[in-house]
Design a protein that fits this description.
The chain is an alpha+beta fold and 271 residues long. It contains four helices and 13 strands.
Length: 271
């Protein structure tokens, strides 16, 4: 029974994170103190932890060994805390000198090689959000692309929103947990003959138009608009493939044309 208790205690120490080297040191202390109990020596020749160790009875308690024993005592005064996975310490709850029990949260460790991005989706948009859809995550100066892996079936009572989760790879650590981000979900894809940025569209005489450069001057083209999203809009009429459309500072061209039109309409002679 005593041997079974000792084997069980040894297994518990392994579970807590001690290694074969630590166990050897404990066996050395037990033998050196001569408490009347003989240490159990592993007799399994295939044991990778114990095969290279000499039996406890062969230890020579010389002065050199006594000094080694003191060093071992000092080392065992420090209890190693080993995490079950590689990660980054993000929080510490163990001040120096604090007495702790057997189940404290001494450190909080997180594996930041992947991060979870949790979006809140309004209930009116939930029918269009399903797992597997691609999401462009805007993190300020950085952008990342991921896939919706989970959509909560429950809507929160206070916000009337549900959780949609995207898992992103973060090997460089550029994505920081706790950051507010914005996600754009592609709920549908379709082919169109011509698409331009929405900021390109200007309005003159209450008609949507764009400006085309023919190599010498800018020409106004009235256009017919089709389907749109947050950034782009479909052009169904008014443009042809190969037209050089002004996509930046189009409002300045519009202002110059309106100024010229006003000046021309005000010119005349008195008879």
């Amino acid at each position: 029974m005593r041997e079974l208790d000792l084997i069980g205690a040894e297994r518990n120490l392994y579970i807590l994170g001690l290694t074969a080297v630590d166990m050897r040191a404990l066996q050395t202390l037990t033998t050196s103190y001569g408490d009347g109990y003989s240490a159990i020596v592993c007799t399994n020749p295939n044991c990778t932890d114990c095969a290279e160790h000499a039996p406890i009875d062969s230890i020579d308690l010389t002065e050199d060994h006594a000094e080694e024993l003191l060093n071992t005592n000092e080392r065992l005064a420090w209890y190693p805390l080993r995490a079950p996975f590689d990660g980054t310490v993000i929080s510490k709850h163990l001040p120096l000198g604090e007495s702790v029990k057997d189940n404290p949260d001494a450190f909080i460790i997180a594996n930041l090689s992947t991060v979870w991005v949790d979006f809140r989706v309004h209930q009116r948009d939930l029918p269009a959000i399903v797992p597997g859809q691609k999401v462009i995550v805007d993190c300020g100066q950085n952008q990342a692309e991921g896939v919706i892996t989970y959509v909560s079936p429950i809507v929160a009572d206070d916000t009337r929103t549900a959780l949609a989760r995207v898992i992103l790879q973060n090997p460089s650590g550029r994505l920081h947990p706790g950051t507010f981000v914005r996600g754009t979900v592609a709920i549908d894809r379709m082919k169109t003959a011509m698409v331009i940025e929405k900021s390109t569209i200007q309005y003159m005489d209450d008609q949507p138009c764009v400006f085309v450069y023919d190599g010498h001057a800018f020409d106004k083209r009235n256009v017919m608009l089709g389907r749109t999203d947050d950034k782009h809009i479909e052009i169904t009429e008014g443009l042809q493939t190969g037209d050089n459309v002004v996509i930046k500072n189009a409002f300045r061209i519009k202002a110059e044309m309106e100024k010229s039109k006003t000046a021309l309409s005000g010119h005349g002679h008195v008879h």
